[in-house]
Write a structure and sequence with these properties.
By secondary structure, this protein is of the alpha+beta class. The strands form three sheets. It has an eight-stranded antiparallel sheet, with no helix packed on it. β1 and β2 form a beta hairpin. α2 crosses α7, α4 crosses α10 and α5 runs antiparallel to α6. The chain is elongated and about 100 Å long.
Length: 395
């Protein structure tokens, strides 16, 4: 290990000595601060060290970036606009940090005492996250040492768990974290023990979730198939009673009862699957494992948008680099095909809007990481296959 020493004698006669101890085997840095009172008066204060974040470094908002902390077994992730409401969190077991999409910088207390996490802003640009030590009185000719550990490294759940100090709590995938972390574990297991390609791991993970949710999807698609059968009759009813909404609704409900069709049968099973989709979405967006991870061909970074060729000129709605988003266009095509398999909407305006959804999603996904697009594409393909099988069985 190597160490760096810094010292400064203040005008008040306080000798401040800082020691940073580095090791090539770890992202942790031991950091000690020694206060030596060389004055003739006692020194009473609460030493603090802090991290600073530039507001301009904010990510696109799909995951949390900014100041965070772990206080009294509770993760704090504070957005800038919330700092004015509450900016001080006292307690034990504290670490404070600054995190972005893939990396985390943290300060931890070595001795379990009552430290305080305090947030503050400086103008419109900087956010400061402080770890404040307990009050201490240092008499003349005496000294006081405070021991910390620093972390500068990737937000890898497996890595942070090795270091203890609850650092792994910094990896948090939002409301559906309880589902996202098992998905992350499965993806890493596939990569580490089966096929060392994260693109293939995403495909197999998507297939696994599709198999688990197969019964729900089957129920939904069967309901859609039944709805598709009675669609001509519904069209007749709407045309016949287009000037009498009450009568129209009565006849439509009678049609449902006659054919034993539940109009919500296709929606409810899909709603149950939404948490899994959101969990996978958030996990794939923030997983450090996908950073610079190649898939095949032109997709050499699953954390970056897919671009085939460098066109050399700007394209509306597209962030650089400017190229052909092949994977995204294919994904949009699968969404269009999936829409064609859905029962036709009774309202022509709604039907047209639904057919525009693939175009809308293609524009949204054009700048998303290729790993996310790959998941959505594969999920669409498996959904189309399941719909085709279900509709085929019903014919």
């Amino acid at each position: 290990s190597k160490a760096l020493f810094f010292s400064r004698l203040t005008a008040d006669g306080i000798l401040i000595q800082k020691t940073y101890s580095f090791s090539p085997d770890t992202y942790l840095v031991d950091f000690n601060v020694k206060l030596n009172n060389q004055s003739t008066l006692p020194l009473s204060q609460r030493p603090a060290i802090y991290l600073v974040k530039k507001e301009a470094d904010d990510d696109n908002g799909y995951g949390f970036t900014g100041p965070s902390g772990y206080v009294n077994d509770d993760l704090k992730q504070i957005k800038k606009k919330k700092i004015a409401e509450q900016n001080e969190f006292p307690g034990t077991g504290i670490w404070v940090g600054i995190q972005d999409r893939y990396f985390f910088t943290g300060i931890m207390q070595k001795i379990q005492e009552n430290y305080t996490m305090r947030l503050s802003t400086e103008g419109e640009v900087l956010i400061r996250n402080q770890l404040i030590a307990p009050a201490a009185t240092i008499n003349p000719s005496s000294q006081h040492t405070i021991e910390y550990q620093l972390f500068f490294g990737p937000k890898s759940l497996k890595l942070l768990r090795q270091y203890g100090n609850d650092l792994n709590k910094a990896v948090y995938f939002g409301f559906f974290d309880i589902l996202a972390k098992p998905c992350l574990w499965v993806m890493n297991f596939i990569h580490d023990h089966l096929i060392p390609n994260y693109g293939i791991a995403i495909i197999l993970l998507t297939l696994l979730t599709k198999i688990i949710l197969w019964p729900l999807g089957q129920k939904s698609y069967k309901s859609m198939a039944e709805m598709k059968k009675i669609q001509p009759l519904m069209t007749e009813i709407r045309e016949k009673y287009k000037h009498d909404k009450k009568k129209m609704n009565e006849e439509v409900m009678a049609l449902y009862r006659a054919y034993k069709v539940n109009p919500m049968g296709g929606c409810l099973p899909m709603v149950v699957q939404i948490p899994v989709f959101f969990a996978l979405y958030r996990m794939l967006y923030e997983a450090i494992e996908l950073r610079h991870a190649p898939f095949f061909g032109w997709i050499n970074d699953l954390s970056a948008p897919d671009r085939l060729f460098d066109l050399g000129f700007s394209i509306p709605f597209m962030q650089p680099p400017y190229g052909i988003p092949v994977l995204t266009l294919i994904m949009g095509g699968t969404m269009f095909l999936q829409q064609k398999l859905q029962p036709a909407m009774g309202d022509p305006t709604q039907a047209k809007l639904m057919m525009l959804m693939p175009i809308f999603f293609t524009f949204i996904f054009i700048n998303f990481p290729s790993g996310l697009v790959l998941y959505w594409l594969v999920n669409n393909v498996f959904s189309i296959a399941q719909q085709y099988l279900t509709h085929g069985k019903k014919k």
